[in-house]
Amino acid sequence: xxxxxxxIYDRFMAESEQACLSAWRAQLLGGLSGEVxxxxxxxxxxxxxxxxxxxxxxxxxPDPHMRRQLSDRIAERGRTGVMLNEGSLEQLxxxxxSFDAVVATxxxxxxxxxxxxLSEIRRVLKPGxxxxxxxxxxxxxNPGRLVWQRRVEPFxxxxxxxxxxxxxxxxHITEAGFELEWIERESVRKALPWVRPSIRGIARxxxxxxxxx
Length: 213
Description:
CATH architecture: 3-Layer(aba) Sandwich
Radius of gyration: 16 Å
CATH topology: Rossmann fold
Helix content: 25-40%
CATH class: Alpha Beta
């Protein structure tokens, strides 16, 4: 199904992008600098929102169908100095502590093991580095919607590239050793009801005893 998801993804998300997602991406990415890695870069919807003076931008996308569209978008926008990476989020072929910021937007819902994925994000971040995230999540404050999310999830995972509707991603982020700098919860406008609840924000790689040393 990955070829079909890649083919229709931008059209499927177009109304939500116009209604809110594009503005949210700009809010998250506008202040990033230095060495930046985006994981699960998909078709490249974040590309236009990265500051021009980012020192190095690495876009990681393991799916070949998504990566083909990502490569085309890079060429269309004429952005130079962007590196493509095929690595899986759960096993990034990148050195420890090598990035000032890591970006993940609408990707942690579909990884098989969120804890492993976040561990890899933390590993490649420099101590104190920033993690910018935008994800749809479980409707923890809306029991009625959460019931429907649970009912829909088995089918939705099959047709939407392993996308889970009930993940508690904010909890996963803090459990992985990140400190939340800020977080906002908001409904994704124009989206299907079971993927409307969302979180976005910035977290930092917490400085543990090993990091401080």
